[in-house]
Amino acid sequence: MNSRRVGRMTKEIPWRRLRSWACLRCGKCCSKFKVTLRPYEYAKISELMPEAVVPDVKPFLRKIGGKCVFQNEYGLCDLQELGLKPFSCKVWPFLVYKKPKSINPGEAEFHYNDEKYYVYLNQHAFICTGVNMGMPEELPNIIWEVIEIYKNPWRKQKYSTSRLVHLQETINIGWARP
Ligand code: SF4
Is residue 167 part of a domain? Predict the structure, then answer.
């Protein structure tokens, strides 16, 4: 996939067809999708801010003005700083599987230590303005991190999120210093 725009996708795309990816904070994913929560996410987030969660068979995050209540004015996720960003948002726009979902498994294969995973771009990733943006050499780091999040949803993000998060963290640390 060489073009900057992915175009309308009808199925999941193996990660090797991607040139690069970077979050540009456009916020489209925070408006377009319903963020359903895993039980432990629901427990923690509803304890912190009950009005932000819609209780349902599959509870989900509320939207205000068409966007997720936790998306701040910089296009960043306020839950991320609290270590509570939901799993589905952390791995977006990627999907990780233990078994291949496509005809050519090699295109989706990723070797993580002595394990093998299959990573795809979400079939709705055509809305993500970050597809094929950023530096191609960082893509393996991003995929590696997404697999680590798949294995441990609490893992902190470095490559698979907006770089502005790190700038914000640096500034916050700077402010905290005497
Ligand atoms: S992940 Fe993609 S859709 Fe979501 S804010 Fe970043 S660039 Fe936009």
Answer: yes
